[in-house]
Amino acid sequence: MASPRKNRQLYIDKEALATLSLAKEGILGKVTKLMNKAEAVEVNETGYYKGSPMPFSFIMAPNGRRNQEIIASCKPGETLDLIVERKKRGEIYVEDFFEIDKVKRITNIFGTYDPTDPETQVLLKRLGRLAISGEFELDFDDVKEAKAKIQKAKEELGAKKVTALMMSARPFHRAHERLIRITLDKADLLVIFLLRPYKTDGFSYDLRYKCLQYFIDNYLPRNRVIIVPFENTYIFAGHHNSVLESIAAYNFGCNKLVIGQNHSGIGMYFDQNQAHSTLDRYKKDLPLEIIILSEFVYCNICKTLVSTKTCPHGQHHHIKYHSKSLKALLNAGILPPAVLMRKDISAILLSELFPNRFENLQRIYDDIFPNAGLLEYHDEKDFYLELMKLYQTTSLV
Question: Alpha carbon of 160 to those of 77, 153, 247, 264, 343: distances in Å?
Fold first, then answer.
């Protein structure tokens, strides 16, 4: 990638770098370059690229006065360096540049244009007036390493049925557990793509990974489940994300994708009692089988976790697993009930979200929990686990 002369530079962020890497490693199918104007127009109009599904054009129009000046003055055949956080992470070999319509671009991705929507506002800030096209090379191995991890697991197991789940696990709760178990029951290998967005709400990627790995290590046949980081960049933010996820899962080496009915990118609706979704447009052309599962809820009549499709009781008997509400409890430092979240997971989350929360944890622990009279060290995770046991004690309620 080294050049004998100094190239001019484009400045991009980590999210753009990861998006480019998905294409470079073949995760987006036949899309391996930044499209030129003719290709972009055709894809936006047809939803296909070289005969394969692609819901919108793959372009890069980095905002910023300096970037836009460089693009406006670049020549076909010129090499530009891609700079991320002051470090060169790749090169683009210029084919051409062209003007884009920001409103149409956002509409293509989100399915609508709402300037008050936070996601729309973020994308508006990212987009410049001019897009650049051409082949590129990158110094970014995350996606390549993820592909290798899946291939190694397949070879070790001799796996034929490889199923993908895409989840953010923000936070990881009981409905996620049920989804994983049902999916694993019919797969040789389950690949959980843990979404790694380039923004955080306090539930870091490392913390979410830790919780999910804990569940796998302690409650599942661990050799049949692997976690793979998935670069959940802005191109997956819109109403076509389930189409892109299916293309990505296939090119990572999976032959089935399981998604929930409430997945943001499928747009479930019913016509004459038949379920339909945005996936229907590409159904015959998508390269892998897609299974859409009904929502899981806790029914206070059935006294267990059930599918809304099989439970005969009304919604007024159902407890739903809303991630936003669970996050609100955790962010307030409240231990969620075990029916919503496994107590081990709650303990991990709270102990990391509120480190050193108690001035004298050991004294509190010894005062309110039974013990064998021996001096033992207990950390905050132990404290929350024992506290949950007291919450579940029912003799005085």
Answer: 44, 11, 18, 29, 35
What does pTM read for this prediction? Answer: 0.90
Structural domains of the chain in order of their starting residue, each with its CATH number: 8-140 (3.10.400.10), 145-298 (3.40.50.620), 322-391 (no CATH)
Q: Which residues are 306's β-sheet partners?
A: 297
Distance CA 339, CA 320 (A): 11
Give 182-197 pLDDT, tens digit per residue.
999 999 999 999 998 8
In the block, tokens 């389950």 appear at 190
Asked whether the predicted pLDDT for residue 349 surpasses 90, the reply is yes
Strands (E), 267-303: 269-271, 274-276, 289-293, 296-299
* Strands laid side by side in the 318-319 sheet: 304-307, 296-299, 318-319
Picking from 261, 278, 233, the residue whose alpha carbon sits closest to that of residue 320 is 261
d(CA 91, CA 79): 6
Highest mean pLDDT among 107-121, 211-225, 376-390: 211-225
Q: Cα–Cα distance between 221 and 345 in angstroms, integer?
A: 18
pLDDT (tens digit, 9 = 90+) per residue, 316-333?
Answer: 999 999 999 999 999 999
Structure tokens of 198?
């380039």
Other CB atoms within a 10 A radius of the CB of residue 304 amount to: 11
* Contact status, residue 375 vs residue 209, Cβ threshold 8 Å: no
Encode pLDDT of 139-180 as tens digits: 999 999 999 999 999 999 999 999 999 999 999 999 999 999
The yes-or-no verdict on residue 201 having pLDDT over 80 is no
Structural contact between residues 138 and 19, judged by C-beta atoms closer than 8 angstroms: no
Q: How many CB atoms lie within 10 A of CB 336?
A: 22
Report the phi/psi class of residue 226: left, alpha or beta, with left for phi > 0 and alpha for psi in -120 to 50. beta
Closest residue by Cα to residue 254 from 313, 183, 168? 183
* Two tokens, residue 181: 């178990």
As a whole number of angstroms, the distance between CA 245 and CA 259 comes to: 10
